[in-house]
Amino acid sequence: MKLVFLGPPGAGKGTQAAFIAEAAKIPTISTGAMLREAIANKTELGKTAEAYTSKGELVPDEVVIGIVKDRLTEADCKNGYILDGFPRTVAQAQALDDMLPDAIDVALSLEVPDEAIIERLTGRRECKNCKATFHIKNNPSAKGDVCDKCGGELIQRADDSLETIQNRMSVYHAQTEPIKDYYKDCGKLKCVNGVGSVEEIKAALFSALGLSEAL
Ligand code: AMP
């Protein structure tokens, strides 16, 4: 299964992608996570990316397209993948199709209104060590302030401040939302309601993808 996961920042794509990846036994490829790793490692890519990510702006298409192209040729992508955070513009979606015409089977859009996003993102926490994501109210770590998977410190992402979130939302509406029409026109778009409990949303997504919970 080759899947693009669409939806506003904070829609819960990361949490739900992990469930789908486990059930379908395919990797999740998150351009945001790849860029954060490059920033943490202070690589040339990281230095370029940080100037944009710190303001909530999109990293230039050619930079992101290059890292995705390299990643999709790795062996673990042979049976499919979930793209989380890419494509982010119609130009990126077109570049992906030009590069790999069979790159995508399904574009799944997780639909969440803006007000719910603001509440979610300001409460989001990420494990500094294993990158697992939590929410202080909706999906807290069983171990409180530390990650219940690896014991790592839970931190708020630099781009989850209110001002940056508002900027990311307007960037999403202006530049990323039009991708839905792009995949609709190809007959690949499926929309799923992203409001509800983590379990309810998981069930709706699995049903849309024809995945069994027991897989
Ligand atoms: P995310 O974790 O997907 O919310 O990404 C965090 C930040 O990384 C975004 O706000 C962008 O600055 C940058 N980024 C991630 N993916 C892309 C992409 N496909 N195109 C451009 N910028 C991206």
Automatic annotation (TrEMBL):
Pathway involvement of the protein, from the record: Purine metabolism; AMP biosynthesis via salvage pathway; AMP from ADP: step 1/1
EC number: 2.7.4.3
CDD domains: ADK
Xref: Pfam families: ADK (PF00406), ADK_lid (PF05191)
GO BP terms: AMP salvage
Keywords recorded for this protein, A-Z: ATP-binding, Cytoplasm, Kinase, Metal-binding, Nucleotide biosynthesis, Nucleotide-binding, Transferase, Zinc
Name of the protein in its database record: Adenylate kinase
UniProt source species: Candidatus Aphodoplasma excrementigallinarum
Gene name tied to this protein: adk
